[in-house]
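Step 1: inspect the first sequence and its tokens.
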Amino acid sequence: MQMNTPPRSPRGSRGTIRLTRRGRIALIATGAVVAGTAVAVPLLSLGAGEPEKPTTLVIPEGWRASQVYGAVDKALELPAGTTKKSFTKANLKLPNDAEGNPEGYLFPSTYPLDEKATPEKLLSFMVDTANKKFNGAPIAAGAQRNAMNVYQAVTIASIVQAEAATKADMGKVARVIFNRLERGMPLQMDSTINYALGRSTLRTTAGDTRIDSPYNSYQRMGLPPTPIANPGEEALRAAINPTPGDWLYFVTVKPGDTRFTSDYGEHQRNVAEFNAHHKSARTKT
């Protein structure tokens, strides 16, 4: 998981959102998610006395819209694909920049399920919750302070959510993003490639980086066109309050060992160590 582009001379402005990096990716399991330091979160919470009837729906931080749709289908015992087809009928209150795509605005939380629950109602509840969180003074003012709008802040937060190995690293990951934006460097984040390919993996091949997609941050400059997941509040806070630093690169060599640096040569050495560690791990399995 490396970023292959050394620093270039600055171009563009802070108002022109441009980014970078390859790093740690969320690991997704059926019915649960493991992202950063988060532990597996049950998909459904069962009510006492009704072991077969869920009473709440848990949406973990970092889930993609596709996972949320599947969870709603499962919770409401609907045919697969029902929620995805019905979201256009939900009249969701999304920002204009979203162009009708709810990715990033299906806020991670626990939502009640009752006999009147429908995909449209649940999705509207999620988006309304996101709007309350995102459009309040802290997030909106923080976005403006960093010369971006709220939608761009949510997009950055979604990348932070996917890339940060721990919650403690979120502010540093956000700083790498902003530092690369200021220098006009490509994002080069594996998480955006994974989103384009509909997968989650810790390794990205050279072929992967050549795919034709607006989410290919190796080939395209700037932010992806939408968020790549639904971030939680900590990732949002990191996106508007990045940790001070001059880092341009980072890689999680092994669990608990994420290395941030501004030196491309040092980063390449860290990447080599990452590759060696994972090669050794594969040999032992």
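Step 2: inspect the second sequence and its tokens, then contrast the two.
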Amino acid sequence: MIFLKTEDEIELLRQSNLLVGKTLAEVAKIIKPGVTTRELDKVAEEFIRDNGAIPTFKGFPNQFGDPFPASICTSVNDAVVHGIPGDEVLKDGDVVSVDCGTYMNGFCGDSAYTFCVGEVDVEIRQLLKVTKEALYIGIRNAVQGKRIGDIGYSIQQHCESHSYGVVRELVGHGIGKEMHEEPAVPNYGRRGSGTLLKNGLCIAIEPMITLGNRQVMIDPDGWTVRTRDRKCAAHFEHTIAIRNGEADILSSFEFIEEVLGTKAI
């Protein structure tokens, strides 16, 4: 069932999503060679809880019923999404997708950003740039009267025009009182197909794009989704609401990019 949100509920969603953006900015401050992904998680969890919220990822079950053990997902290089923070040390030239979720005032926030660690190859920076562009292209198609397929089609066309792979096994989603609600929001699709977009619909749009082919696999940890060809992946995510017929971005990259300055993608 799809739950359309009221204006008041959308504003509560915005509060949770802005906290995600601020949390990712705190993480951005310490991303550099030599830092472990566990250190990123510690900063994120403390910041979320200090601001009166709960990290929604912690304890969230996977398809096997295993609870996620951390507050953020840290997916490095060929890891697409759902990487578990741990003792992995970030190195110069790495990229790391940080996905974060919060629960506050009864509503969820969800956003992700892929960061460069030190000096990153031009080829990989271009993957990040195109993936981020695709996110905003998808958002421009999230307007009243269009359909979910229009969002996915626009993302797919942009990424495949650069010969990148568009992951099929993982998709965006509705969001509200639960982190994952209906409808599913694929990053591929046919124009004019799928759920009709209406005012009050709140969704997370999150292109997951690969430098090589689109085939992925799950690590033995039951969580980390990795490219089969071991080439890099990128992941950017915003939560949006359809209000007054248009997409209203509830999350924010502004806090992150204030920290990154000229190093922002």
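Step 3: confirm your contrast with the notes below.
The mean pLDDT is 98. The radius of gyration is 17 Å.
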